[in-house]
Amino acid sequence: MTQSDGVRDSVAYQGRQFADRAAAGRALAAQLMDYVAHPQTLVLAVPRGGVPVGVEVARALGAPLELLPVRRLGVPSDEPQVLGAIAEGGPLWS
């Protein structure tokens, strides 16, 4: 099932089914509670599907949320298949 923006409503990860990406974000945040209010915690979200997840994680951790825009790299022989992604500005970490 998809929303009007093409992002799936329900999400499955490691055998768990989530009602939507926000629910998945809340479940992820519960696993990251060691980082609550840590001054160096920053949540990065990749648009489109990662934003609802990132919003919930950032909210739960009291951390800032930054969007990391990327350009997807498709497989030439199978365009819907994604090979990877490229971000502007080079590597974030060295």
Strand order of the largest sheet: 1-2
- State the major sheet: 2 strands, antiparallel
List low-pLDDT spans. 1-6
Number of helices: 2
Tell me roughly what share of residues is in helical segments. Answer: 10-25%
Write up this protein.
The chain is of the alpha+beta class and 94 residues long. It has one domain. The protein contains 2 helices and 6 strands; from the N terminus they run ββαβαβββ. The protein has helices at 21-31, 50-61, and strands at 11-13, 16-18, 43-45, 65-67, 70-75, 78-87. The chain has a two-stranded antiparallel ribbon. A hairpin with a 2-residue loop joins strand 5 (70-75) and strand 6. The protein is flat and about 45 Å long. The protein starts with 10 loop residues before the first strand and ends in a 7-residue tail after the last strand. Mean pLDDT is 83; it is low at 1-6.
Which key phrases capture this entry?
94 residues, two-stranded parallel ribbon, flat, two-stranded antiparallel sheet, alpha+beta, disordered N terminus
In short:
The chain has 94 residues and is an alpha+beta fold. The protein has helices spanning 21-31, 50-61, and strands at residues 11-13, 16-18, 43-45, 65-67, 70-75, 78-87. It contains two helices and six strands.
